[in-house]
Amino acid sequence: MAKLINIKPYIDRIANGETSNILLADPISEFIQSSGTSGGQPKLIPMTAENFEKKTLELTLVDPVVKKYFDGLEKGKTMSLFFVKKGSETPSGLTVRTLTSCYFMSDSFKKSAPKICTSPIETILCLDHKQSMYCQLLTGLLQRDHVVSISSIFGSVLARSIKFLEDHWNELCSNIRTGCLSDWITDPGCRNAVSPILTRPNPELADTIEQICGNESWEGIIKKLWPKAKYINSVITGTMSQYISLLDFYGGGIPLVSPSYGSSESTFGINLNPLSNPYDVAYTFLPNMAYFEFLPVDKDGEEKARESNLDGVSSQWSSEMKNANGNVEPVDSANVKLGQYYEVVVTTFAGLYRYRVGDVLKLTGFHNNSPQFQFVERRNTILSIDMDKTSEEDLLKAIGNAKRHLEPLGFVLMTFSSYAETSSIPGRYVLFWELKFKERNRCLKLDAKIMEQCCSIVEESLDFTYKSLREANKIAALEVRVVKHGTFDALMDFYVSKGASINQYKTPSCIKSEEAVKVLNSGVLEKFFSPKTFFLS
């Protein structure tokens, strides 16, 4: 029987003043704080100088891959939308930051940013996210003829930035027309950084942007504002796949590139085929980043893992490896099988030992001997009532089917989330949808019959267990709650107020926090229920 230590108490001891050699040989330089929005509380992840270098190596590997597919990138800049979060300290004095903040505050990024980004480093490092976003959009518009790519860490951040632009384009045009920055931008770093770019009144550019943004529809707005942009660089797999159709709508045909797969815990792989269908992206694992093992799981990512020999103390901090008959053993990269689903388990250079990240992956191929995986879902983002367990993957597909029913009518599903309503018996699944028309000035008037059909389509797309329980009245009719514009921005603000980073924020596909549900409920405009009463013939 092999023992797996529970490392969380060791991390807590180091955070409280003990030396890092109780866990690993190299000194811990700081702690990385995970976002906590994928499901669960933020965690402290040890970081060493060597491990930080390995994480930044990922960026140097992605760049030449992208340049194989897009010419002329060296002749322009990236219109970046990057943000940082204020750090904190442990009782022992070690810095606690998000991974993206750690990178953007590093000397290497500060040195390279002026050459590759339209956003001055001071605007990226501004802790006021509204001022930061405004100034980054402004400098991106001022340099629109030099922009060859658009970049944000996650698709959700880019979607929110476009909504922010929709609310502020008149003011941005006014700044460009007069050559003066708005008075409410009070951050000294932002004002000083923008002034060398906003050097004079430019009414011609203001007229051009005003004409583009004043159109009835914002379809293709990114392509129109930044006509030389060759691709959009943003993670759009997993939960972020809900933003693909929205970014396609705004992008006007600009390819969506999901460059790499990583987390606060480790870098995993890169996308060697940037032009692949966004729904079919596979990441080639980088074996020098960490030691990877793969725990076979069922398609819904649950049952085999529960019977495995990695019964974590708290789902991710591993405890003891049992070798009882019938338990599923993790396999290494050389023994994974095509088409099989796995939960990734990682041992890092910074002290994580057989750590279950919680991501469910599907093996789709190999590059030389390195496995290539599609991201399927987070293992703990599951709706559950009675005996039914609806996975994130199945939920995304079901909502995608309903979305196709709405698109010909001119609707765009901006974003969504869900939760299991169990306060009444039987319980039901509730979906929160933020909808808008493609034409900006049209009022959102919803046809009850069409929305009820969408509810039915979602239910029909779910599995046999759900349909059986629904027909037996052990699950009540699925409900869609349509929320007003900006409700999901309020949800992001809620999570940011609780410690999440705007850079690393992922809209939860399944919410289990009652406080978060209250935020969404506060924005509900209308409610619709599935009229369907039978499913099985």
TrEMBL record:
Signal peptide: none annotated. This is Indole-3-acetic acid-amido synthetase GH3.17-like. Belongs to the IAA-amido conjugating enzyme family. PANTHER family: GH3 DOMAIN-CONTAINING PROTEIN, INDOLE-3-ACETIC ACID-AMIDO SYNTHETASE GH3.17-LIKE. InterPro entries: GH3 (IPR004993), GH3_C (IPR055378), GH3_M (IPR055377). Residues 283-378 form the GH3 middle domain. Residues 393-515 form the GH3 C-terminal domain. Keywords: Ligase. It comes from the Eukaryota. One of its GO terms (cellular component) is cytoplasm. One of its GO terms (molecular function) is acid-amino acid ligase activity.
